[in-house]
Amino acid sequence: MKKMYFIAIYPDQKIIDEVRVFKEDLALNFGNSKALKNDAHITLLPPFEREIELEEDIHIAFQKIDTIISPFEIILNGFGSFPNPKNPVLFVKPEESENLKQLYLNVKEKFSFGKHSFNPHVTVGYRDLTYENFLKAWEVYKDKIYKTKLLVDKITLLRHDGKWVPINQKKLSEE
After folding, report:
1. Which segments within 13-143 are labelled E, that is strand?
2. How many structural domains compose the chain?
3. What's the sign of the alpha-carbon dihedral 114, 62, 71, 156?
4. DSSP string, 147-163
5. 99 vs 60: CA distance, rounded Å
């Protein structure tokens, strides 16, 4: 049996709740309820499929990720979008962070399959967001002010069991 897995950074509950307000606005006013299913996060490794029998290997690779990086802050500042007509995405934008790039490269070193570029973001609207509704939402969100600091002190491995469930965590540390 195959399962889906992914690796992400989750902010504290305060940020999850703040971002949820934006998601609820999109659900209520722009017909986008699917984004409500997931808590706010920054994806380090997009969902991938593996046989559940191989899960132990995933855990071993996850534990081998180099997390000898001091915990660091990312500034979330305003909103951005991927205006793809087939699959538009509205998100909270993190400011440029060398530490975040390094952490991503360390994850990619142990999970090197798949070609994907790294565009860190905290999704607010996607999936059942139509392009027409995306354009209306973007008018509201493009100049909206939202700024906060997210402390990155661990990474999380999740498995999809009807919903995304954390199955492992690894803390960042100086040594």
Report:
1. 42-51, 72-82, 89-94, 122-125
2. 1
3. positive
4. EEEEEE-EEEEEEESSS
5. 23
Determine the number of helices (DSSP H) and then strands (DSSP E) in the chain.
4, 8
Structure tokens at 167: 């199955």
Question: What residues make up the domain containing 94?
Answer: 2-171
Q: What single-letter DSSP state applies at residue 53?
A: G
CATH number of the CATH domain containing 24: 3.90.1140.10
Q: Read off the pTM.
A: 0.93
90: left (phi over 0), alpha (psi -120 to 50) or beta: beta
Q: How far is CA 158 from CA 48, 53, 74, 169, in A?
A: 11, 16, 22, 9
Q: In this predicted model, what pLDDT tens digit does every residue of 38-97 receive, in sequence order?
A: 899 999 999 999 999 999 999 999 999 999 999 999 999 999 999 999 999 999 999 999
- Segment 6-33, tens digit of pLDDT: 999 999 999 999 999 999 999 999 999 8
